[in-house]
Amino acid sequence: MKDYEFFIDQSRCIGCQACVQACGECDTHRGTPMIHLEYVHRPTGVQTAPVVCMHCEDPTCAKVCPADAIKQDDHGVVMSAAKPRCVSCSNCVIGCPFGVPKMQVSFELMMKCDMCYDRTSVDKKPMCATVCPSEALYYGPRDYIEKHRRETPVNEFHFGRQVVRTKVNMMTAPSRGEINVDITQYMSGAEAEIDPMFDARDGAPDAARFAVWEG
Question: Partners of 39 in the beta sheet?
Answer without folding.
Answer: 48
